[in-house]
Amino acid sequence: MSKLTRSILIFGKAQVSALIGGLVDYGIMIFFTEVFNVHYIISIAIGGFIGAIVNFGINKGWTFHSNSVPYKHPVWRQIGRFTIVVLNSIILKSSGTYFITSLFKLDYKISRIIVDLIVSLAFNYNLQKFWVFKKRQKL
User: Which domain holds residue 33?
Assistant: First the structure.
């Protein structure tokens, strides 16, 4: 398999993982906001943490195969780095959703989808691939 094909496959798997984690995250956000009347910013944080657990598990075992491939960092360091990415992702998603909702008077659910697409592609994927699940350099 060529390097380009492998990169495209990993990117696709990461997007499937992000979609699954994102659906969990998004569903929890809507549930807490609509059922319990929790402000959507707080619901984003709650959903973000739960969706992150799902996303980490999928990425570790399936997307980046870090159970079977020699990675630069042990699992505890991957979890630490992933936590840093998730915390910043939640901050970006919360503030971005609030900004777009307030500025453009959109429903928070629509604003959240827009922000999620941007954060997922521009921030989460790159940090997970090149920092959290970084492979060892071949000698």
Answer: 3-132
